[in-house]
Design a protein that fits this description.
- The chain has 274 residues and is mainly alpha-helical.
- The chain has a domain of 90 residues.
- It is built from 13 helices and 4 strands.
- A two-stranded antiparallel sheet has the order 1-2. It has a two-stranded antiparallel sheet with strand order 3-4.
- Strand 1 and strand 2 form a beta hairpin.
- The protein is globular.
- It starts with a strand and ends with a helix.
- The N terminus is likely disordered.
Length: 274
Amino acid sequence: MLLTTGILIHLRDFGHDRETLDWLLDQGVDINRTDIQRQDDGFNLAIGETDSSLHLLNNVAASGDIDLFDHLVSRGADTSLCTALHSASRCADPETSRAMVCHLLDKHNMDIDRNNDDLRDFFHDPQDSGSPLCSAILHKNLAVVHELLKKGAGVNIPKSFPVSYAVKTGGFFPALEPLLRAGADPTEALATSAHARNIDAAKACLQFGPDPAPALSDAIALEERRANRIAANAAFFENRPEWNYKKSESEIEKEKAEERGSQAMIALLKSVME
């Protein structure tokens, strides 16, 4: 960053402009300094949260510009300070992102299983926490998923279970089978699918010989919690008629969908245990 005539300049903002970046670096801007109170996209973090990753390299990796990435490294950018291997999956072009991932692994020897939270201190639970493989699934980048798996990315890392990103609501189902074929624990994958009430994912997991008992136990407990929560809410408002509370149509439909999903999951898992 550079403070000139009252204007704070962030290198991150010039990740597409090599000429300007070189000029700023020639003026003495520290290439490894980053705005720790913002994210790669420039949005503010909550007070007390920090992201110390090198946003400039992150964004150049996301653009897929291999030449610029290497040029910045030649000018002193420290690759250990960035999460470029995660960011590469943000590239809109699958082949470009795959090429960047290969380059980062083969030339810069980046850790294929690095957890991006080692450079961040968040109070909230960010949706992109975990390994580069988790990031590829989050960004629905199947080309990078396949490339990372081919190069040996871990699929059963504690606190970084990529299957959860594939099967959760709004996840990326096409990544599930490649993960399972690469050795993802099918029993844990089935339990994760049951918790997400994802029938299609559960059926896919069952093809890989999991123990269905933990998933069934989880599905039953999930349905009990759902039913108890609804009953408790109903009792709460019944004792307060003056509030005149009435569920919206969307709330009612959501509750019905959750019940249908839970019951279907329980039935499926019971059937395979018979």
